Amino acid sequence: MRIVIAEDDMLLREGVALLLRAEALDVVATADGPEAFLEAVDAHRPDVAIVDVRMPPTHTDEGIKAAVEARRRLPGLAVLVLSAYVEQAFATELLAGGTGGLGYLLKERVGRVEQFLDALHRVAEGGTAIDPDVVAQLLTRSRPDSALERLTARERDVLALMAEGLGNTAIAERLFVTEGAVHKHIRNIFAKLDLAPTDRADRRVTAVLRYLEETQQRV
């Protein structure tokens, strides 16, 4: 796995690079800004890019814009975005294209090495990894009269784990239920949200988050 890291905080940038190299992953380049990041993508054609949301010069959304441009230049590039804060708009914007290979994590997750590496590998394999805190805020921002209110408490638990990018087996293990029960809950969720079910995890997560984005915009 060839990785490029774009992060303006030198300590975090070098720390992530050291962590990944210790895991025998190939960090081919690091960058401290969007221009240097895009140059590294062009030069090294990595499999995965780890990108900070806020980078120079304005420290607003340069990272998101650079990530979108990198995927335009290198179709199929997996992107794991890091942010210091919960910013729901960035999470839903990332998934707007309806494709996999995308992740959004809070920077504090980097210190939880197993979770961070799991998200990185999931994204590299074409899946989706959304920070649990972001998912929680998306769910709580739904309107009282939205379709989400049709879901039972257990179905909301399953939906949140789906949005994080977990598959049926992982959801069953997390909730201490059978895979058959998870499958039934997912069928109910899609029916109540008027979403067509699919066997591909990235598509189902994208569909769910698109729905959450629509409800968020109406709040």
UniProtKB/TrEMBL annotation:
CDD domains: LuxR_C_like (cd06170), REC_NarL-like (cd17535). SMART domains: HTH_LUXR (SM00421), REC (SM00448). This is Response regulator transcription factor. InterPro entries: CheY-like_superfamily, NreC/VraR/RcsB-like_REC, Sig_transdc_resp-reg_C-effctor, Sig_transdc_resp-reg_receiver, Tscrpt_reg_LuxR_C, WalR-like. Residues 2-122 form the Response regulatory domain. Residues 144-211 form the HTH luxR-type domain. It holds the Pfam family GerE. Keywords: DNA-binding, Phosphoprotein, Transcription, Transcription regulation. The modification 4-aspartylphosphate is found at residue 52. Gene3D superfamilies: 3.40.50.2300. Coiled coil: none annotated. The keyword Transcription applies.
